[in-house]
Design brief:
By secondary structure, the protein is of the alpha/beta class. About 25% of the residues lie in helices and about 25% in strands.
C-alpha cells in the first residue's frame, strides 16, 4: 500500500482503533466508575445545563464510557434527553429519539428507543458523543460506521446560526497526538475526560 493512500489510511485507523479499544477495556472497574463521575462533574462546570435543553446522549457499549451520571445530571436540570436511533443501516443514517419508553437493541447491538417521538440532529442543543480516540484538533475516531459524521454533516457549513455543540466523552487514555482528517469528518467542539475539558476552536468547517 502506498503511504497516504486510502487503503493505507484505512489500515492505519483499524490498527489504532484496536489499540485504543484495548486501552479503554484495560481500565479497572473502580477507576472507570470514578472517571465517569468526574466526567459528569466536568460537564456541569463547563457546560451549564438549563431547563428545556435538548441533549443527546448515547446508550454505551460495555467498553464505552458510561453516561449514567450525566443522564441523571441532565434530568435534574429538567433537560430533554434523546438517544440515537438507526433509520437506514445501508445509508448509515440515524435520527434522535426521546429517551423514554421501551428500549430494544438495533442491528449493531446498541439499545435505542423503539417507539418514542424523534427529532433531527439540527434541533439538538448539546450532543455528547462516544469515541474511540481524539486528537488536539478536535478530530474524532469512532467505530468506523460514520453515523455521526453523516448526521452532523451540515456542521461543516457556516450558513447556520443555531447549531448543536458536539462534545466527545472519553477517558484521558484515548487521546492521541494526531488523526488523519478525511473530507467527510466532522470536528468536535470539545472533549470531556476525567482530567478536564479540551475545547477546540475551528475557524471554518469546510
Amino acid at each position: 500500500m502506498a503511504p497516504g493512500s486510502h487503503a493505507a489510511i484505512t489500515a492505519e485507523r483499524k490498527a489504532l482503533r484496536a489499540e485504543l479499544r484495548a486501552r479503554r477495556r484495560g481500565i479497572p472497574t473502580p477507576i472507570r466508575a470514578e472517571a465517569e463521575r468526574r466526567v459528569a462533574l466536568n460537564v456541569q462546570r463547563r457546560f451549564p445545563l438549563r431547563p428545556g435543553q435538548r441533549v443527546a446522549l448515547y446508550a454505551p457499549l460495555p467498553e464505552e464510557l458510561d453516561v449514567a451520571p450525566l443522564f441523571e445530571l441532565v434530568r435534574r436540570h429538567a433537560g430533554f434527553i434523546y438517544l440515537p436511533r438507526l433509520i437506514d443501516r445501508r445509508k448509515r443514517r440515524m435520527h434522535f429519539a426521546a429517551a423514554h419508553g421501551p428500549m430494544t437493541p438495533n442491528p449493531l447491538g446498541i439499545l435505542e428507543p423503539s417507539e418514542a417521538e424523534w427529532i433531527s440532529a439540527r434541533q439538538l442543543d448539546l450532543v455528547f458523543v462516544p469515541l474511540v480516540g481524539f486528537d488536539a484538533e478536535g478530530m474524532r475516531l469512532g467505530m468506523g460506521a460514520g453515523y455521526y459524521d453523516r448526521a452532523f454533516s451540515f456542521l461543516r457549513l457556516r450558513r447556520i446560526w443555531h447549531r448543536p455543540k458536539l462534545i466527545g466523552l472519553a477517558f484521558a487514555v484515548q487521546r492521541v497526538p494526531s488523526l488523519h482528517r478525511a473530507s467527510h469528518d466532522v470536528l468536535l467542539d470539545a472533549v470531556v475526560t476525567e482530567k478536564g475539558v479540551h475545547e477546540f476552536f475551528h475557524h471554518a468547517r469546510e
